[in-house]
């Protein structure tokens, strides 16, 4: 008989323990929110596979990636974040309570932060797995270009990323050989990048080619390309190979719930919130321009803080704003708008008129639009009258008489 899952409650569940998830945990832990971080492989994420991180601010000695992420993990633990090393198998994020399930447990959370990152697409060439990351196959020119100064590198791919990163590599490497699967002169990148690459003296091209195999002793020494028309094998000796044939975000779990772009990334707003209230996404899994540790931890800081505000607002919203005991008046205003400010005195008059029979809440949307968003109000000032914890009337054209009548109508 299947064992029943243990149910546990948290304020925040973070899915993924890379730099983005760890940073979010540091912020939610520090805000004293009960936080669980679930990681299915290595805490530290993709960064742990890198031997030298030269561009993360504050670490001039170019430490291993795991040196930096271990410090993040320690900091999160010190701040009370709990860790579970297991894979998240399913989620139900659409309700007020968010459900995250692993093989054995069911976690119910007020907010969920998705930090599942992604994985570089690989070629599938023979013995590729023997040379991944620091053994000769890299996926990040920004990270590894300098280590290839005066070396010969092979670039796989001809899309925008491949050609732009290949051009960047020519600033360091002595030669960049690009494997392109199309006929001579045809590439998948934009025309400007293509023309710049074709006229770059450090760049050479092997047309109509795909990867057949990777060869070498401890470290990669050769990429064996194959001509797709003749099947001829073309061994290319090199010091390193950079694969730029795409990146796959780890979003399979969220399909059908969280909105995804056509390339399966998660689009977020400036607070890292997804299309679902209380569900945030950060780091490489999001639709973003620069995928680096520095940007991942920045995302984590934003989402951690936004999650804390979301929970605080939820409590105020349920208990105070949408109270059920009396008729309520909610005045939504923008403190930097003069008309909005001036109408505050009218609200006070109405409040005095009804005394203890009316509960009045003033919500300044300048600091946060969270409560207005929950009330689906987009223009300010506005007045909402509530009855028994539900919206009864929404008014945008404000005058005392009309508001007074509306309140009386619901008494
Ligand atoms: C080879 C390489 C070298 C790099 N070098 C640098 C560098 O020098 N400098 C730099 O700034 N950046 C570098 N980067 C980029 C950097 O590593 C990433 O941008 C960063 O790790 C992104 O962090 P993240 O937390 O968003 O995702 P990730 O680090 O990918 O972490 C996501 C985590 O989520 C976990 N996860 C996924 N699905 C689940 C699930 N269902 N349940 C539980 N856990 C799950 C994964 O196991 C993973 O640990 C490099 C990347 C690579 C590949």
Strand content: 25-35%
Q: How many DSSP E strands?
A: 21
Radius of gyration: 28 Å
Distance from N terminus to C terminus (CA atoms, Å) equals 56 Å
CATH architecture of the largest domain: 3-Layer(bba) Sandwich
Estimated structural class = alpha/beta
Instruction: Report on the biggest sheet.
Output: 7 strands, mixed
Domains counted in the coordinates: how many?
3
Notes on the structure:
- The longest helix is centred in the last third of the chain and has 29 residues.
- The chain is built from ten helices and 21 strands.
- The mean pLDDT is 95.
- α1 packs parallel to α2.
- The protein has three domains: 184 residues, FAD/NAD(P)-binding domain; 122 residues, FAD/NAD(P)-binding domain; 89 residues, Glutaredoxin.
- The protein has 411 residues and is α/β, with parallel strands linked by helices.
- The relative contact order is 0.12.
- Strands 1, 2, 3, 4, 5, 6 and 17 form a seven-stranded mixed beta sheet that branches.
- Flavin-adenine dinucleotide binds next to α1, β2 and α6.
Write the layout of secondary structure elements.
Blueprint: E1 6-15, H1 19-30, E2 35-39, H2 65-78, E3 82-85, E4 90-92, E5 98-101, E6 105-114, E7 118-120, E8 137-138, H3 141-144, E9 152-156, H4 160-169, E10 175-179, H5 191-198, E11 203-206, E12 209-216, E13 220-227, E14 233-237, E15 240-243, E16 247-249, E17 279-281, H6 293-321, E18 327-333, H7 338-342, H8 344-354, E19 358-364, H9 370-374, E20 382-387, E21 390-395, H10 400-410
Parallel strand pairs: 1-2, 1-6, 2-3, 6-17, 8-15, 9-10, 9-15, 10-11, 18-19
Antiparallel strand pairs: 4-5, 5-6, 7-16, 12-13, 13-14, 18-20, 20-21
Bound molecules: flavin-adenine dinucleotide (FAD).
